[in-house]
Design goal:
With 406 residues, this protein is α/β, with parallel strands linked by helices. The protein folds into two domains: 135 residues, no CATH class; 153 residues, Histidine kinase-like ATPase, C-terminal domain (Heat Shock Protein 90, 2-Layer Sandwich). The chain is rod-shaped and about 120 Å long. Pfam families: HATPase_c, HisKA_3.
Length: 406
C-alpha cells in the first residue's frame, strides 16, 4: 500500500468514525426540536418530552463508553416511553424518529436475535401508537413504517459490516507490508549467498591450491596467489556494489548465454580436473531480466556445489529454449561426481538449494534435484516464459542423497 492510499484510508476512517459518533445525537436532537415546536405543550408534556430525550442522549453517551447490555436496554425503554408522551396534537409524524434510531442501534447487538427482537418490538409499538393517535388503522402508513424500519436497520447492518471489512483491510494491509519486507530480506539473502558465496568459494579453492604448491615448492605459487588476489578484489567489488547487484535489471549485463559462457570459463579456470560441456540454444525471443537472473543464479549455485562437493570430472550445462512453443525454458546441470552421503533431516538442504527453490517457486517453475539414473547428480529447472502460466513444483531430496552443505 502506498503512502497516498494509506492517507486516503485514514481520512475515510476518520470521517466514518465522526459520522457514526455524532449522527445519533443530531437525529435525536432534531426529533426533540420537532416535538417541541410542532405541537402545543403543557408544562407536564414539555418536562416529559425534555426528560425522555435528554435521558436518551445521556444514556447513549454512557452506553458507548461502557457497552454494558443494561444501558442498551435503558435506551430501549426510553424509546418506548417516548411513544406515550402526551400528544394534544394530531401532528405526530415526528414520533417514530427516536424509536427508529434506537432500533438501528439495537439491531447490531449480540446475540443478533435479541437486537432484532427489540427492534421489532419498537416497530410494533410505534405502529400501534400511530393508529391510536389517528384513531384509525392506516395500512399504507403501517407498510411505509415497516419499510422505513427495515431499510434503516438494513443500512445500519451494512455500515457495520463495511466498518468491520475496513478494519480487516487495514490489518491485512499491515500483514502484506510485513510479508513484503520479509520477502525482500529473503531476496537480499539469496543475492548475498549467490554472489559473495560464489566468490568466496573461488577464493578458498585458489588458496587451497596455493597451499599445495607451497608444500611442493611449485613455481606456480606466485601465479596462484595473484589469481587469488584477483578473486578477492572481485569479491570486494561485489560488496561495494551490492545495492546495484541486488537490482534484477542490473544484475546481468548482456545476454544470459553470454553470462553463462563467462561462468563456465571461470569454472574451468579453477577446476582443472573437470571438463565442462556447454550446450546453449539461442532464444528466438529475448528472455526477461527476472527470468534470466533466476536461470543464471541457479546455474551459478549448481556449479558452486559441484566445485565444493562433487569431485566430478565431467559436467554438462544445457540451456534449452526449444520448449518455447510450450512457453518454457529449461536449464539442466549434470555431473558424474558423487551423489552425496546421507545427512540428518535438518541438514538436508543448505541455503543455496533453498535459494534455488525460492527463485523457482516465485516464477511458478519446476525444480528437479537429485541423483541421476546414469550416475552423478542432476539439477533441472524449468521456468515458464510467463510466470502466470506455470505452477510451482519442487522435487528435491529430503532425507538422503543430498550433496549441498552450504
Amino acid at each position: 500500500m502506498t503512502d497516498k492510499q494509506a492517507q486516503i484510508m485514514q481520512t475515510q476512517s476518520a470521517l466514518i468514525g465522526w459520522f457514526s459518533q455524532w449522527a445519533a445525537y443530531c437525529v435525536a436532537g432534531a426529533a426533540y426540536i420537532f416535538g417541541l415546536f410542532l405541537i402545543q405543550h403543557t408544562l407536564v408534556s414539555f418536562l416529559l418530552l425534555t426528560g425522555i430525550y435528554g435521558a436518551w442522549i445521556a444514556t447513549l453517551y454512557i452506553a458507548r463508553k461502557d457497552w454494558h447490555p443494561g444501558w442498551w436496554l435503558v435506551l430501549f425503554c426510553l424509546a418506548c416511553f417516548s411513544l406515550f408522551t402526551p400528544l394534544p396534537s394530531a401532528n405526530v409524524y415526528w414520533l417514530p424518529i427516536l424509536p427508529t434510531e434506537t432500533a438501528c442501534l439495537l439491531v447490531v447487538l449480540k446475540p443478533r436475535y435479541l437486537g432484532l427482537l427489540l427492534a421489532g418490538t419498537l416497530w410494533v409499538g410505534t405502529g400501534l401508537t400511530l393508529s391510536l393517535v389517528n384513531k384509525q388503522l392506516d395500512i399504507g402508513a403501517q407498510i411505509i413504517l415497516l419499510i422505513s424500519f427495515s431499510s434503516i436497520c438494513g443500512c445500519t447492518l451494512m455500515i457495520q459490516e463495511l466498518a468491520l471489512a475496513h478494519t480487516r483491510l487495514q490489518e491485512y494491509s499491515a500483514q502484506v507490508e510485513e510479508l513484503s519486507v520479509v520477502r525482500e530480506r529473503n531476496r537480499i539473502a539469496r543475492e548475498i549467498h549467490d554472489t559473495l558465496g560464489h566468490a568466496l568459494t573461488l577464493l578458498a579453492v585458489q588458496l587451497e591450491t596455493a597451499t599445495q604448491f607451497e608444500a611442493r615448492g611449485d613455481p606456480r605459487l606466485r601465479e596462484k596467489l595473484l589469481e587469488a588476489r584477483r578473486v578477492a578484489k572481485a569479491c570486494l567489488t561485489d560488496v561495494r556494489h551490492s545495492v546495484e547487484a541486488l537490482r534484477p535489471d542490473e544484475a546481468l549485463h548482456g545476454s544470459l548465454q553470454e553470462q553463462l559462457r563467462k561462468l563456465v570459463a571461470e569454472f574451468e579456470s579453477n577446476c582443472h580436473g573437470t571438463n565442462i560441456t556447454l550446450d546453449l540454444e539461442e532464444a528466438t525471443q529475448p528472455l526477461n531480466p527476472e527470468l534470466s537472473l533466476a536461470l543464471y543464479r541457479c546455474a551459478q549455485e549448481a556449479l558452486t556445489n559441484i566445485r565444493k562437493h562433487a569431485h566430478a570430472t565431467k559436467v554438462l550445462l544445457r540451456l534449452s529454449t526449444s520448449a518455447e512453443q510450450k512457453g518454457e525454458v529449461e536449464l539442466t546441470i549434470l555431473d558424474n561426481g558423487q551423489g552425496g552421503a546421507p545427512l540428518p533431516e535438518q541438514s538436508t538442504s543448505g541455503f543455496g538449494l533453498l535459494g534455488i527453490r525460492e527463485r523457482v517457486a516465485l516464477l511458478n517453475g519446476t525444480l528437479q534435484a537429485g541423483p541421476d539414473s546414469r550416475g552423478g547428480w542432476r539439477v533441472e529447472v524449468v521456468l515458464p516464459l510467463n510466470k502466470n502460466q506455470g505452477r510451482a513444483r519442487i522435487s528435491a531430496p529430503r532425507t538422503h542423497d543430498t550433496r549441498e552443505k552450504v
